[in-house]
Amino acid sequence: MPDPVFFRPARTFTVAEIAALVKGRVAAGDPEAVITGVAPLSEAGEGQLTFLDNPRYLADFRATRATACICGTKYAAQAPEGVAMIVAASPYRASAMVVQALFPDATRLTGAFGNSGIHPAAVVHPDARLEDGVCVEPGAVIGPRAEIGSGTVICANAVIGHDVRIGRDGYVGAGATVMFALVGNRVIIHPGVRIGQDGFGFAMGPSGHMKVPQIGRVAIQDDVEIGANTTIDRGANRDTIIGEGTKIDNGVQIGHNVVVGRHCVIVSQSGISGSSTLGDFVALGGQAGISGHLRIGTGAQVAGNSGVASDIPAGEKWGGSPAMPLRQWMKGVRTLRKLAAKAVGDGDSD
């Protein structure tokens, strides 16, 4: 059985062309060498481009057999002989630019079925409004008065609820559900995402827990990406908002009334409790938990596996559980390690 290749290069590039693309310079090697693909440092061979951004991989860098490598100025002199060196300000970002140019299909998502137009096995309510150029795959359901812009792909078995608005050039993955939501342009919603379901709201009491109706919406601005199986609850009495350019990993939970600012990064298995607000450019590490009704300031960063129970000022780095400023947390960790080592030492001497 032949081994399938899902992404093939759209064209080739010379080393000089790549340097121009990433606004870098050729520091060594043949600028006319041809690049046909990309690979990691340890696996790259003839015709392939690689990059070095993390000093942990210096040993692989010094031994690489790639045709060309993108790196920073301080590492260029350590490259093996015969490897063309492209010096760029941000090697990782530069590498991403090259991969986008070589494999444009990897960022232009299509449905599993690969059709265009509205498939006969899709169910589109007669009152829904779809612009020309919308693709709807088999099994997808689009409810009454929903509106979807041109260039958007609705994949197999996705469900778009009544009155939902989705902008242009978007993507809704297989089996995703989008309800009670307003979605901007160029939004990527990966398979299994749940948007707009009830927020978790109950008025608790001795006679039982009374359900609080969730009458808000979810508003997702332009250029947001939402990873597989993430859930975003609609607001209770106002909108849950995801700001422009924010990137959300797989398996994230965002509660009702949450406001996420622009260009935030939220890593897998993080959870944001109801009515908390994240400023612009906030970064949450994997499995970070944010309690309800908190404010995380613009540019703040939260380490993975942290539990945040108080507001975080803009620009600060916090970690730990309960979370605290990073230096304070690390000092505490070092102190505990010393105490533990001393306790083990005392026990050995008894």
From TrEMBL:
Homotrimer. Belongs to the transferase hexapeptide repeat family. LpxD subfamily. Coiled coil: none annotated. It comes from the Bacteria. PROSITE patterns: HEXAPEP_TRANSFERASES. It catalyses: a UDP-3-O-[(3R)-3-hydroxyacyl]-alpha-D-glucosamine + a (3R)-hydroxyacyl-[ACP] = a UDP-2-N,3-O-bis[(3R)-3-hydroxyacyl]-alpha-D-glucosamine + holo-[ACP] + H(+). GO terms for molecular function: N-acyltransferase activity; UDP-3-O-[(3R)-3-hydroxyacyl]-glucosamine N-acyltransferase activity. This is UDP-3-O-acylglucosamine N-acyltransferase. Keywords: Acyltransferase, Lipid A biosynthesis, Lipid biosynthesis, Lipid metabolism, Repeat, Transferase. The active site is at residue 256. Its EC number is 2.3.1.191. GO terms for cellular component: membrane. Catalyzes the N-acylation of UDP-3-O-acylglucosamine using 3-hydroxyacyl-ACP as the acyl donor. Is involved in the biosynthesis of lipid A, a phosphorylated glycolipid that anchors the lipopolysaccharide to the outer membrane of the cell. SUPFAM superfamilies: Trimeric LpxA-like enzymes. Pathway: Bacterial outer membrane biogenesis; LPS lipid A biosynthesis. Transmembrane segments: none annotated. HAMAP family: LpxD (MF_00523). GO terms for biological process: lipid A biosynthetic process. Residues 33-100 form the UDP-3-O-[3-hydroxymyristoyl] glucosamine N-acyltransferase non-repeat region domain. It holds the Pfam family Hexapep.
